[in-house]
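for the writeup, i need someone to sanity check this before i put it in the appendix. the sequnce is what the collaborator sent (i think, or maybe the updated version? ugh). structure was predicted straight from it, no edits. if anything looks off just tell me and ill rerun, i have time this weekend
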Amino acid sequence: MARPSAPGPLVLVQDLVNTLDVETGTDTLTTPEGRAAFGLRETDVAGARDLREALRAACLAHAGHAPPADAAALGALLAQAPLLTTVDPSDGSARLTPADPASLTARVAVAVALGSLDGSWQRLKVCEDETCRWAYYDRSPAGRGRWCSMEVCGARAKMRAYRARRAGE
């Protein structure tokens, strides 16, 4: 199913979180193609997985759920990724850039920082369905989306709630 992408640099965060399909257990970081999409070597996978799960925890908190115990891990990981402010001499404009452009953590840190500035970071969430946990960008007007897809995960949740109400009658 095609899901809309997050805006701007947050698509990197969304894509990284979605390298693990929780329902099937498929992890694309185990494949050469999956690693290449993020510029990773095989030796970088463990760190990328730690970053991915820390991002998932933060996005779960964005969806209004109590963050897991390891939610503070994201701050610790991003603190290890120095960022630079570069100034274009031709027009004086400034940009936030990773000190090490090859570092996935630094590129994620830039995306999170920019998303924090424009308010889009808080709208990057993880699906409420425990068997899904797919990252999605909440485009609902009120910012209260709960599922990556109303047609699949939302429908499943509503059907479970309906059945629970019927069983209680």
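The radius of gyration is 18 Å. Strands lie at 20-21, 26-27, 83-87, 94-98, 124-126, 135-137.
thx in advance!!
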